[in-house]
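ugh finaly. both done.
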Amino acid sequence: MSEEPSWLTMGRELRSIAQIGLTFCRDPFDRQRYERIQELAAAVIAMGAGKADPGLLDYMRQDVGYATPKVDVRAAAFVDGRVLLVREASDGSWALPGGWADVNESPAEAVVREVFEESGFEARAAKLAAVYDFRKRNRPRHLDSIYKLFFICELTGGKAAPSIETTEAAFFAHDDLPPLSTGRTTAEQIHRMFRHAEEPTLPTDFD
């Protein structure tokens, strides 16, 4: 598992404290204090990253309510011993189909939607294989706290097709993976999904 720098861990926690405080405080002086903590969170992250980001504080201010991790869902679907991957339009690298879960969707519904939107294939979620903490498993680092849910899926129809977010969908063997978009999917995660597909009785992995 990868280690995060202390400045990112500290900045993210300060951000969370500030967001929760601003949600529940009623005293105007307390509000000023939490707003200052929010400013300090942005400053700590910018200082640690070694570059100023004028939009960082505004990004933090957009999140309101109780601070909780975001949910990312990923699908591992196999045909003839090969896994379905999609090429991301944003960086030209490959990943398991997936993305943010939407409001009023179950995780299984979200991953089925993502498979169709990103690859053109229809699917059924068969097993929750893993629940991973992004900060322990993925790179590059992310400002948000993220839980990644990996499902073993069965393809039920459709055909490979590009989308707004992806330029290609294709199948790859265990030992012939293309360059990966590691913020979305790592080789270790894909190898683990092969194992789950080969051994359906394996329990769900979790951090």
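ok and the 2nd:
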Amino acid sequence: MDLMEKDLRWIDVGSRLRELRMERRMSMRAVARLSSLSTNALSMIERGRTSPSVSTLYKVATALGVPITAFFRQESQRQEIVFRKAHRRTRIPFPRGLWEGLGGEEFVGVVEPLMLTLESGANSGKFGMVHTGHEFVLCLSGKLEYEVEGQRFTLEAGDSLLFAAQLQHRWRNPDRDNTLALIVLTSFEGGERPSEFHFTSGAGQAGGEGDC
């Protein structure tokens, strides 16, 4: 079991799944049909009898019409000062990658810094994304390819990229080694969760149409 799968053991996915399902007034059978999972498998997850894989969680999220981050949200009072120890980061696994919050999810201001760890071939999905504000990217290790309005930029360790986030963009790791990147989202509209645009149902899938 790798780091991405281990993180799911620390989240009460079952309770959150039931909460999201009930909010949408969806039966277990309806979610099963839309996710192509069995009702028994979903029941086992809801009751905490089994922990879903990242790919299974993505199927459930798609069926519910929510981003995968909905399973990891822990709403808390926003603060003017946020200190975050490395081992206390919010960690959200997705296929072939890991998202780590750096405190923006608890900060009163409109800035959201995050870390992305991407395995070879990981990408943000088939389609580009747009959101309000600005996006700053710093490649810490490996290679990261960003496509912004049709222009491609290959970032290596130390390289950075800054652009207006309303420009259509997407990313991928084109290298054989893992990529580590710092992304800072700023100046977005209040109430928006810009990082969620980076985790569509197709995010993280290797190869094929998801490539930049």
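summary for the 2nd one i guess: Residues 1-10, 206-210 have pLDDT under 50 and may be disordered.
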